[in-house]
Design brief:
Elements lengths: L1 H36 L6 H19 L2 H9 L1 H6 L5 H16 L4 H23 L3 H20 L9 H7 L5 H23 L15 H14 L18 H18 L16 H15 L3 H14 L1 H4 L4 H8 L16 H16 L8 H13 L15 H4 L7 H20 L3 H6 L4 H10 L9 H9 L6 H11 L6
Helix pairs in contact: 1-2, 1-3, 2-6, 6-7, 9-16, 10-11, 11-12, 12-19, 13-15, 16-17, 16-19, 19-23
The structure holds zinc ion.
């Protein structure tokens, strides 16, 4: 009995220490959120200092030898519990994160954090001036720091693996490279076939749409999805475009639903949140694309949208609108890309990251390498570096390596999860046509949301879909959806 009490005390000590770290990390997230939304760019270096300090504190707290000791002492306790219990999962996930964290000195993490803030600030200026040379020295330093980070993990097969592991635990270059290659092989001919036809007419989306009405309609949609407005999501409204605010809000609401659906007992623990960047993205993309860009969804919502924007959309049919929001085009900007070409944008970035880390590509040659890959893969060349190599913030506020694979993993998983949900509940598409999302939402909660970080991405995909991650469901989905209009 006494041993059990002792064990319980140790577990409680571990849980308390971990939740302090979670609180610090959550506070950092608010600072990041502010930096990405409201904070003027000139605040970046002060913010970098603050974030660096918080990172150092949380890293020191987490890598405290006492945590290692507790994790060690709790091994037997962990073994005695069912492995999917919350307590066993907390110990397991904490140990995994701890083993990674202790390899990296807190001072290095703080240095990286401060550098990221400087690089971000330089990027904002360089992008506005279309002057890659101005940010290149900072990016060189990012590459150097990314390599140094990888050096703390000498047992990894590939230099990028430890960087990928930070956001997509368990994924590595030896899995991802063939996956991207297969996907590219499947998608390039589909893109060819679609874009050899005249482009879909999406001019109906590019009219004047006053922001208040856009936000009101968007609010109706995300409320129907089951979103709770007691928490925040960020969106951006353009008054000359209808699709941006709408689909980015559905996307962000998908991320939010995931975390809001965590089992309440995980709140404030290291198990709260999402499994990985890939699984997180699968939840936002599932709502944004598989649901939000489906025909059934608009059978329900289009008459309402027309009611809000009668002048702009009164003469546009549901079918015309559906085709407009699913226009496939070879475009320059990843975030604006349609779901067919999107993964080609990601593959370019993934390959360039590997080339830089492997020393095959110097930073000064990056803009040219970017142009070449866009030309060969998407058939277009960005006229400026701002629309090319500087379009995404990721490398400039993160690391080189591990920044992009999650988007494609998310797209693949979204199709695999959705296919499984519809197999289990064939009525889901019909329910969506009526604006009812409860069955889908409940399925996602039961199978994915409630578990937080308990399982790895691979375990999750396997548990939920009964099969390992594959490109097939995604390719099937694309062929089926676009096969309605094109011979693919
Ligand atoms: Zn996302």
């Amino acid at each position: 009995m006494q041993t059990l009490d002792k064990t319980q005390t140790k577990f409680a000590q571990l849980a308390t220490r971990l939740s302090e770290i979670v609180d610090i990390e959550s506070a950092s997230s608010v600072l990041y959120w502010d930096q990405a939304t409201y904070m003027p760019a000139k605040g970046a270096s002060a913010r970098g200092r603050q974030l660096g300090t918080l990172k150092q504190i949380s890293h020191e707290k987490f890598t405290d030898p006492k945590i290692g000791e507790l994790l060690e002492d709790l091994r037997d306790y962990e073994q005695s519990l069912p492995c999917d219990s919350t307590a066993a999962s907390l110990i397991r996930i904490a140990r995994r994160d701890y083993d990674r964290a202790v390899r990296v000195p807190a001072s290095f993490m703080a240095k990286l954090c401060r550098h990221q803030a400087d690089c971000y600030e330089a990027w904002a200026v360089a992008k506005a001036d279309n002057n890659f040379a101005a940010v290149a020295p900072e990016l060189e330093k990012t590459l150097e720091l990314s390599r140094q980070y990888a050096d703390f993990f000498p047992n990894c097969e590939h230099i990028a693996d430890s960087l990928i592991d930070r956001s997509d635990y368990g994924m590595k270059v030896s899995i991802l490279r063939p996956l991207f290659a297969q996907l590219r092989q499947a998608l390039v001919p589909i893109v060819e076939a679609i874009t050899s036809n005249p482009p879909a007419d999406d001019s109906c989306l590019q009219q004047e749409f006053p922001a208040p009405q856009q936000l009101e309609f968007t609010r109706t949609v995300v409320e129907r999805m089951g979103y709770d407005f007691h928490v925040r999501i960020t969106t951006r409204v353009y008054e000359d475009r209808l699709d941006q605010a709408l689909f980015s809000s559905i996307h962000e609401a998908g991320h939010a639903l995931y975390e809001l659906g965590n089992s309440p007992e995980l709140e404030g623990t290291m198990l709260a949140g999402g499994v990985s960047s890939g699984v997180h993205e699968s939840q936002s993309r599932l709502w944004e694309n598989l649901v939000g860009r489906s025909r059934g969804f608009w059978e329900c919502f289009y008459p309402q949208l027309q009611g809000v924007f009668l002048r702009q959309l009164g003469h546009i049919t549901t079918d015309e609108f559906y085709r407009a929001i699913n226009k496939v085009a070879r475009s320059l900007v990843r975030t604006d890309a349609d779901e067919v070409t999107y993964n080609l944008h990601v593959a370019i970035r993934f390959d360039l990251e590997l080339d830089m880390l492997e020393g095959k590509l110097a930073i000064r040659d990056l803009p040219e390498a970017w142009r070449e890959r866009y030309k060969s893969d998407l058939g277009i060349v960005p006229p400026t570096d701002s629309e090319g190599v500087m379009q995404d913030v990721h490398w400039y506020c993160g690391t080189i390596g591990g920044m992009f694979q999650g988007y494609t993993l998310g797209n693949l998983m979204s199709a695999q999860f959705y296919e499984t949900a519809v197999k289990a509940h064939p009525e889901i598409p019909v329910e969506i046509e009526q604006g009812n999302f409860e069955i889908l939402h409940e399925w996602l909660k039961q199978n994915i949301y409630q578990h937080g970080r308990k399982y790895t991405a691979a375990e999750m995909v396997d548990r939920v879909t009964g099969a390992p991650l594959s490109i097939d469901p995604f390719v099937r989905y694309i062929r089926h959806k676009y096969g309605e209009f094109y011979v693919i």
